[in-house]
Specification:
Blueprint: E1 2-5, E2 14-17, E3 21-24, H1 36-50, E4 58-59, H2 62-69, H3 73-85, E5 89-92, E6 96-99, E7 106-110, E8 140-142, H4 154-167, H5 182-194, E9 204-207, H6 209-221, E10 227-232, H7 236-244, E11 248-255, E12 258-259, H8 261-271, E13 275-278, H9 292-305, E14 308-313, E15 337-342, E16 354-357, H10 360-374, H11 379-390, H12 393-419, E17 425-426, E18 434-438, H13 445-454, E19 457-461, E20 474-478, H14 484-503
Parallel strand pairs: 2-7, 8-19, 10-11, 10-13, 13-14, 14-15
Antiparallel strand pairs: 1-3, 4-6, 5-6, 9-16, 11-12, 15-16, 17-18, 18-20, 19-20
Length: about 525
């Protein structure tokens, strides 16, 4: 635990600071794969990216930091130096060390706020990055993988809600079953069978989106210091949840076939992880397809070390060339796989409906965690999506959705091929809602985002997708939310900014892009 002087008054020109103690928790794991200085560095970076540590927050002196964390002075100096080298903090002579994102900003004056005393309340939030990119004010939203409301069956749901309330006005006065409405679970069981997941309604738990499914699994099976293995890059919302439980996260790179099983095997042999987390069959954020061979190998590894696999399937229905292999859960005969399926994105985000499939005592414990969390999802929203899940129109909706999103994917690929500078590369997604772009190693996507926001464009910087590494030269574009006109405008703006960055390469030490 460390004590920070925190700022909550600043603007884009000047940083205002005040002497108020903000309690931030840093957990040092001495047996983790990362060095202690890297853990300190990563924890502070996570807080900054999450908005928990804002510009102008004053860090403790190196000496106080080392005392509070019980580590050597040299260890803290190394962490602070890396933070300053990467432009996360700035030292001001006679005043201290402060969080900054721009070396040209100046720390000036002390201030006060009626809420300053709240900063003394200790929290245990190590990271909450993904939420910062979900709902932002920019006109061109390429940051969150949501589907354009114009492509969703909104009118269908308007009629269904009206009819449901007319036929059964008491639906609002009743709790749903904790496990989920039995009719909906029956329908979803059949729906999952079409995706290659054979299960029964008894093994299905309806959740408040897949994010709640992740949270239920984490709070049930992950404790402080437990090892979780993720892909690199991976879904940032999962990193936030695992860090919140105090997990030691180790990452394994992905290639065109999915997670590198050779590297995964080495990590599993050495650390015996509690959880392996994968976004399959389409990887988020790269959109690549995990091969059947890799699926079998991951399952064999998990079975050999008694490890749980979390298979997060957010968009297997959205494929562009051919239908992907059935999920890993299809081959799971021993109950090692917990399968998460999102329905909100492709149907109705406002309904926040997700599916968790598990068996045996694992399911029983997750059911208990769901009961503790919220006593069950809204009955109205479950009854609302039920008719469409049961209807043949569901498959027609998905077919049209694939066509529309493939057109947008192809539009982005064509625009990048035409306008992007040489040296920018990208992966062609075989499915899903995202495009993964790689920049030259000297270019920082976090700084690029600053300029993009000035032009009303938003995207997800790749740094949010890495739990361990500091990979700053990637970004994720979600091409599914805005219409073709805004999509074209956004890609052209991005390419113009990239060209400007290349033109300024010789001055990159002073440029806000790098």
């Amino acid at each position: 635990m460390i004590t920070l002087d925190y700022n909550d008054m600043y603007n884009t020109q000047q940083i205002y600071w005040r002497k108020v103690h903000f309690i931030m928790y840093i957990e040092i794991q001495r047996n983790a794969g990362a060095s202690i200085s890297d853990q300190i560095y990563q924890s502070i970076v996570d807080h900054i990216h999450s908005g928990l540590l804002q510009e102008g927050a004053r860090l403790p002196s190196v000496r106080n930091q080392s005392k509070q964390l019980g580590v050597s002075l040299v260890t803290v100096v190394k962490a602070y130096k890396k933070l300053e080298d990467d432009n996360y903090i700035i030292s001001v002579q006679g005043k201290g060390t402060f969080v900054t994102e721009n070396k040209e900003r100046e720390v000036l004056v002390e201030g006060t706020s009626p809420f300053d005393r709240q900063l003394a309340f200790q929290d245990y939030l190590p990271r909450a990055q993904f939420a910062r990119f979900l709902h932002t004010s920019e006109r061109i939203q390429l940051s969150s993988s949501m589907v354009d409301p114009g492509l969703l069956p909104t009118q269908w749901f308007e009629r269904e809600i009206s009819q449901i309330l007319s036929r059964n006005p008491r639906v609002l006065s009743r709790y749903a079953e904790i496990q989920g409405d039995s009719q909906l679970r029956n329908a979803i069981s059949q729906y999952l069978d079409n995706l290659g997941v054979t299960t029964t309604p008894e093994h299905i738990l309806i959740t408040n989106g897949t994010q709640q499914g992740l949270d239920l699994i984490a709070r049930t099976f992950i404790g402080s210091g437990d090892v979780v293995v993720t892909e690199a890059p991976t879904y940032p919302g999962a990193i936030d949840v695992f860090r919140g439980r105090g997990a030691t996260i180790l990452s394994v790179p992905v290639d065109s076939e999915g997670i590198r099983v050779d590297l995964l095997q080495n990590i599993c042999d050495k650390y015996k992880p509690k959880i392996i987390y994968t976004t399959a069959p389409f990887h988020n954020p790269t959109g690549t397809v995990m091969s059947l061979k890799r699926q079998r190998q991951i399952l064999e590894i998990a079975q050999s070390i008694q490890c749980i696999i979390i298979e997060d399937d957010s968009s297997s229905e959205i494929y562009y060339e051919k239908k992907p292999p059935a999920p890993i859960k299809n081959r799971d005969t021993s109950g090692h796989v917990i399968y998460l399926k999102g329905l909100s994105k492709i149907l109705a985000p406002g309904c926040r409906t997700g599916v968790l499939v598990a068996s045996g005592s694992i399911f029983n414990r997750l059911y208990a965690a769901k009961a503790n969390a919220d006593l069950g999802n809204s009955l109205l929203t479950q009854k609302t999506i039920l008719p469409l899940i049961e209807s043949p129109k569901m498959q027609e909706h998905l077919r049209k959705l694939r066509i529309a999103l493939k057109l947008r994917r192809d539009l982005v690929l064509a625009l990048l091929s035409e306008h992007a500078p040489s040296g920018i590369t990208w992966l062609v997604p075989q499915g899903g809602l995202n495009l993964w772009i790689s920049l030259p190693s000297w270019m920082n996507a976090d700084h690029l985002l600053i300029e993009a926001k000035k032009q009303q464009l938003n995207f997800l910087p790749g740094s949010a997708c890495y739990p361990v590494e500091q990979e700053n030269h990637h970004l994720r574009l979600s091409f599914s939310y805005v219409n073709e006109n805004l999509l074209s405008e956004g890609i052209k703006i991005l390419c113009t900014i990239l060209h400007s960055g290349f033109s300024s390469k010789a001055m990159h030490e002073r440029s806000p892009y790098f």
